[in-house]
Every structure is written in structure tokens, then in C-alpha cells.
Amino acid sequence: MAESNFLVGAVQFMDKIGVYDVVLPFLLVFVIVYAILEKSRVFGTEKVGEKEVPRKNLNSMAAFVIGFLVIASSQLVASISAFVSQLVLLIVLVVAFLMLVGSFTNEKDMDGFLSGPENKTIRYVLMSVMFLGILIIFLNSMMVGDVTWLEYAFNYLSASTNSSVLGSILLLAIMGGVIAFMVTGEKEKPEGGQ
User: Fold this and answer.
1) Looking at the DSSP assignment, which residues form a beta bridge with residue 48?
2) How far is CA 158 from CA 81, 133, 167, 176, in A?
3) pTM, 2 dp
4) Of 33-37, 66-70, 101-105, 181-185, which range is least confident?
5) Residue 135, CA atoms < 13 Å, CB-side half-sphere
6) CA 160 → CA 167, 168, 173, distances in Å?
7) pLDDT tens digits, one per residue of 43-69
8) How far apart are CA 80 and CA 29, in angstroms?
9) DSSP characters for the chain?
10) Do the beta carbons of residue 26 and residue 70 sit within 8 Å?
């Protein structure tokens, strides 16, 4: 029998005691909810010295309770684990893309990468692709029975539509995108700074 690596054994031990199924999802939900409550100041503020600060005790207690309610549901924990793992993959792909872009440009050209009005369309396309990627990852992490929401939606669409309808919709979307791109050009600014 081959000896297992020390680090592999440590990871398996943490899995057995519930670090990945209980502790990490709880911490993730707690931190996100606490940050939202601190920023939004839902429970009001209190005066400390001369400053108005959020009520940290109420925010932390609410985040604590919400975190425990989330880990009480094994289905939510499984969805969070699947979603976060796939989201990390998307983040790694974005970083790899930016590294590739950086390898073909020098540091001076990278100043404000994709900033400025000339790159507005590229920014919107990249933001749309990122949003679509996050939506697909979310739908792929939620389960309905033994299939994901993404598989369920794909199976429903493939069973209820035929290829000519789908092709027509795709053609209309492409034509609409081209027309919108051609119509919305650079707006001319009036003279005199107005």
C-alpha cells in the first residue's frame, strides 16, 4: 500500500471533520452578510465619539444567525460549494486572459487597460461575457433532482423548440446587435463646451 502524502492526509482530515462542509461555507456567508449589513447600515448607526458608525453588535449577530441557517441546509451548502468552485475557475481564466494581454503590450500601453471612450464597446462586451459566465456557473451549481438548472433549461429548450426557430432568433439577435452598433456612434459634442 502506497503511503499518502502528508498534505493530502491533512486535507482529507479537514474534510472528515467538516471544515469544507460547515466551517468554510459558514465563514463565507458570515463575511458577505456582515459586509453588506455594515455598508448598508440596515440596523442603524450609533455615535462613537464624533463619528456615526454602524451597529456592529447587531450586524454581527444577524450575520452569525444567517450563516448558521445557511449551513443547516445541506442543499444550500452544496450549491455554494459548487458555485464558488466554478467561480474561482472563471476568475483564474480572467487572470490568464489578462496575463496574455499583458504579454503582448508594454507597461505604458497597459496604463488604464480598456479605459477611455475608444474601448467602451469592448468593456461592455467583456462585462456581458463575464455576467453570462457567472449566470451559467450559478445555473450549473443549482440542482433540480439529479440535474442542474442549466441542464433542465437546455433540455426544455431543446425539446420545445426546433432548430429553425432557434436559428431565426439567433439571426435576429445578431442583426439587432449590428444595427445597434452602427446606429449608436460617437456623439458629437457641441462647440463652446456646452
Assistant:
1) 51
2) 28, 21, 12, 24
3) 0.56
4) 101-105
5) 7
6) 14, 15, 20
7) 888 888 889 888 889 999 999 999 999
8) 9
9) -PPPPHHHHHHHHHHHTTIIIIIHHHHHHHHHHHHHHHHHTTT-EEEETTEEEE-HHHHHHHHHHHHHHHHH-HHHHHHHHHHHHHHHHHHHHHHHHHHHHHHTS-TTTTTTTT-SGGGHHHHHHHHHHHHHHHHHHHHHHSEETTEEHHHHHHHHHHHHS-HHHHHHHHHHHHHHHHHHHHHS-PPPPPGGG-
10) yes
- Written as nine digits, the cell of 164 is 429553425
pLDDT, position 32: 93
* Bridge partners (DSSP) listed for residue 46: 53
Residue spans per domain, the chain = 1-72
Amino acid at 180: A
Closest by CA position to 126, among listed 151, 93, 156, 150: 93
**Paired strand residues for 105:** none
Q: How far is CA 41 from the centre of its chain?
A: 24
